[in-house]
Amino acid sequence: MSAPRRDSKWWGWGDPAIEPELDGAALATLRERVGDLEPWPLATELDGFGLPPAEPLPSSLIEAVGGANLFTAAEDRVRHATGRGYADLARLRGGRLDAAPDAVLVPPDAETLRRVLEICAAEGVAVVPYGGGTSVVGGVEPLRGSHSRLVSLDLARLQGVEVDRRSLTARLGAGLRGPEAEAALNAAGVALGHFPQSFEYATVGGFAATRSAGQASSGYGRFDELVSAVRLTAPAGDIRTLETPHTAAGPSLRELVLGSEGVFGVIPEVTVRVRPRPSHRRYEAWMAESFEAGAEIVRWLAQGPGLPDVIRLSDEEETEVSLALSGPRGLAGTLFGGYLELRRRRGGCLMIVGLEGDEESVARRRALAVRALRRGGAAYLGQAAGRSWEHGRFQGPYLRDTLMGMGAIVETLETSHTWSRLGELHAAVAAAIHGSLAAQGTPGLAFCHLSHAYADGASLYFTFIARAKRGEEIEQWRQVKRAASEAIVASGGTITHHHAVGRDHAPYMEAEVGETGLEALRSVKDRLDPAGIMNPGKLLG
Q1: What DSSP character marks residue 278?
Q2: 3-class SS shares of the chain: helix, strand, coil, % to 5
Q3: pLDDT for 62
Q4: Strand ranges in 358-407 using DSSP code E only, listed in sequence order
Q5: CB 401 within 8 A of CB 9
Q6: pLDDT number for residue 289
Q7: What is the pLDDT of residue 273?
Q8: What angle do CA 57, 59, 63 make, to 5 degrees?
Q9: DSSP 245
Q10: Which of 259, 279, 531, 534 gives the lowest tally of CB atoms within 10 Å of its CB?
Q11: What confidence tens digit (pLDDT) does each residue in 265-320 have?
Q12: What is the mean pLDDT of the chain?
């Protein structure tokens, strides 16, 4: 690797060759719900950003990492200056990027990484660990804190894979992207099964640092549940937990490292639990009578046998919008509508059910799931709709680029709560989003799906779309985000189920863990990072 990865758009999401388009019916629905949009082309080319001059780095740091592993080109600085949240993309699209790392360092091994952190601590150089750059909460923004110099520490070369087939564990380097890790494991006959929407570009280190959850987490488990051991390289020293299935030796340091978002140090590797590679997959779609009825079905499944690996329930608005923007057209649409009418469905809520494993276990678990689905009044739509979702499961961020180019504001946020209060949370956040958009004169769409089911509750994932107020789009986004966050806190939900805290959610951490809890975390940071160089302004504010 001669330079940091440049195989994705610098101004948007993913592969530049993928550009989804909306057909006439989808455009009509969008205009009806959000009004006329004014196209928003890229305001600048990469060379026109006028980045602030890079501060010179200490010669000892350059010597330690090696000149071949240090990059200062404008493109590399821009690519490492933002994540992929709406505010990040709006700044890139509008050519208003006013901060960037002074350089990008790509350590070739863990020992170089250790030396880099020691020098940065001694010289007062801020460090932002960087995996896939997919954060949507400002997790990689180059905030310098009290430091005048800042580097982005790209972990792309930490790519080790060691599989223990007998123990069903694997040690993975932090720089592996999701597809790279899964392919290496599949070659050894095992699978990790961690598929967040950012799967194509997010990395193993990022999964661990943000306590990531994937689309199949109801079956495979969240990433923090999959980690059996972890290593942290901090400016003050290393933490390495034992590769054992369980220990009663005090509070879990593994849990302390997971979700630390680079503010304590860098996670160079993790050991994860894996499964035999599934030989059979079945994805299918169902239609619940309502969001409330669908949620009850998911609760039954989560609290009894037969919970699918993927269980996803769209609310009424998301179902309507999804079918309008990408649903069946023409004859297929007529047949689809007729099928629902035969089952007395007009409206309702779409459910995606996915199962993976050997053929026998999939059939057995499906029988249990079908019993709950039919008991709850859901109508079977078939495997074609389920496979369609599976094939497009990572396409959402690409569609966001398309919508932003049309002049729309598009953003997501997520939370979770207990079953007893999930309906209250759903209503409160949806009302807050709709209310904030309307108050700004840009009424739009706000829809949600339920996923990541547990015995005691589930997560809710919201998306909102509206007409962007040109020149004010970031403040427009900030007001909606604030309204939704305050509604979450007031309802007792978590400020983040799987997007992490970063910069955007840091103001709500005290509500999440309490004043004493926040002080305890800051004390840990002071011990592991006494110079305060690690990812300033994130998680702890």
Answers
A1: P
A2: 40, 20, 40
A3: 97
A4: 379-382
A5: yes
A6: 94
A7: 98
A8: 115
A9: S
A10: 279
A11: 999 999 999 999 999 999 999 999 999 999 999 999 999 988 999 999 999 999 98
A12: 94
**pLDDT for position 340:** 53
SS (H, E, C) 30-69: HHHHHCCCCCCCCCCCHHHCCCCCCCCCCHHHHHHHCHHH
Is 479 in contact with 440 (CB distance < 8 Å)?
A: yes
Alpha helices in 188-315 (DSSP H): 204-209, 217-220, 223-226, 253-257, 291-303
Two structure tokens written together for 350: 């779409």
User: What pLDDT shows up at residue 335?
Assistant: 43
Low-confidence ranges of the chain (pLDDT < 50): 1, 329-336, 338-339
What span, in angstroms and rounded, lies between the C-alpha atoms of 364 and 359?
Answer: 9
Nearest partner of 528 among 197, 207, 121, judged by Cα: 121
How far are the Cα atoms of 127, 221, 285, 382, 537 from residue 151, in angstroms, in the given order?
5, 34, 46, 51, 15
Q: Which residue is it, tokens 């392919």? A: 183
pLDDT of amino acid 106 = 98
Spatial neighbors of 400 by CB under 8 A, at least 6 apart, are 13, 86, 89, 410
d(CA 46, CA 518) in angstroms, rounded, equals 39
Query: Which tokens in the block code for residue 227?
Result: 């980690």
Distance (Å, whole) CA 128 – CA 537: 10
E-strand ranges in 274-424 read 275-276, 280-288, 310-314, 349-357, 379-382, 408-418
Q: What is the DSSP letter of 451?
A: E
Q: Give 528: exposed, middle or buried? Use CB within 10 Å, 0-12, 13-18, 19+.
A: buried
Q: Which residue has the tokens 């007792």?
A: 492
Q: How far apart are CA 432 and CA 446, in angstroms?
A: 10
Task: Determine which helix (DSSP H) or strand (DSSP E) holds 92, and give its type and residue range.
Answer: helix 86-94
Q: Give pLDDT tens digits for 33-69.
A: 999 999 998 877 777 677 889 999 999 999 999 999 9
Q: State the Cα–Cα distance between residues 224 and 241, nearest whole angstrom.
A: 14
Helix-helix angle 86-94:473-490, to 10 degrees: 170
State the SS3 of 157-169: CCCCEEEECCCCE
